[in-house]
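Incident log, structure service

09:12 report received: a user says their structure output differs between two submissions of the same chain.
09:20 pulled the input from the user's history:
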Amino acid sequence: MALVFRRWASSTPSKAHLHKPLHENSFPIGFKLTGIHVGVKKNKELLDLGVVLSTSQHPTSAAACFTRNAFKAAPVIVSDNVLARNGGRARGFVVNSGCANAVTGKQGLEDAWAMVKHTTALLPSQAAKEDTEHDALVMSTGVIGQNLPISKIVAGIRRAADSLGSDFAAWERAAKAFMTTDTFPKLRSRVFSINGVEYRLAGMDKGAGMIHPDMGPLSTIPSSPRQLHATLLGCILTDAAVSPRSLQSALTYAVDRSFNSISVDGDMSTNDTIIVLANGAAAPIRDGRAHEIDEETDRDSYEIFKKELTDFAVDLAQLVVRDGEGATKFVAVKVQGAPNYKDAHAIASKISTSALVKTALYGEDANWGRILAATGSVPLSSSPNSEEVPVINPSKVSVTFVPSDGTAELPVLVNGEPENVDEDRAKQILSMEDINIVVDLGLGGDGEATYWTCDFSYEYVRINGDYRS
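09:34 re-ran on a clean worker, output below:
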């Protein structure tokens, strides 16, 4: 009993070092944003409404990946509708925290549309396009099944115009407005170049619990195949110009290898949304308009942009795992030697969501048998070139713990044979904040995928046991 009390009383590591000021020259130009308190949350010190606007004179492309949960929240449905109506164009978005506006029926849809309309009203006029009531997207996060205090939110959107800015403080305010059980605002930026032209990416996301996204485009690209798979919300803004179809294609690819490859607790949210806006404010001008990167007409530039977007999305996604509710470990699970990426991804996901694996990691117990049990429970997919379905051969599988400090790796299973494991060394590795687990299926394929997850602690149970109160 004393042992249980001691562990329950221990606190999770501080995540404060993961948030730091960013150089203002690293933020994309042509955006204004803010975060304010409007009363969705009871605590007046907490920001609960964020507004982001593109002020570029060029058309702004927009792309999004949404949850595939059957109970899609009203803001997911409305944002998808806006993108479909506008052909992949939108010039801003609004986000509230504290209430998810999910499973709220007709009223929820009306409230989401009201948020879109009032945010659109803040956008500067654009001569190249007739102003519309629906030129913005919407996101919400918080408790499911409760209606928004929409009058407070609408009044707040109007008031947000007074504090819009483009400096670090404005970006930080917007990032804070996303937060629910997050312990720090998740904000990153970077500079990159394509053909000698300098562009910038900046993004923010939120998430600490109910994290196991399965996101992809909905009606925006009806023919797109399904992707592998409290709430994850995020946005990435760039001053590059990218065609709507190519922006969506790049985002879908990036999300699959970042946000769709993280898990805190294995629960998919009703609200998961990642938005990208590309406003072209830094793009070269040709024939009076920003030259848009396109995967069909400028493949090389598109591939560079896609890689930059993917790497950046991985950085943002990993912040969510590091801030997982009650998390004390950041764990990278790499599966290799699989027949294909899909199989490697599915097995890495299964290991990452196993409660038995995650609790063993918290207890710093090298119980690698749980990793094998999770691995062996996933059926492999059939090859398009063969009617035979491959199967895992236990005599070829290897498992290795890789320390994050660069010291020697610790194989625990090699070609199906257990190693004589030094338990003290294993515990030393598992006591590190960052842990790497490599599972080699030994099937000779080039399928490889990495999933990022965290451990399960007593603190996770405490947070979610009284979430609504």
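09:41 both user submissions now match this output. Likely a transient worker issue. Closing.
09:42 reviewer note: Residues 1-10, 220-230 have pLDDT under 50 and may be disordered. The domain at 16-322 is CATH 3.60.70.12 (L-amino peptidase D-ALA esterase/amidase).
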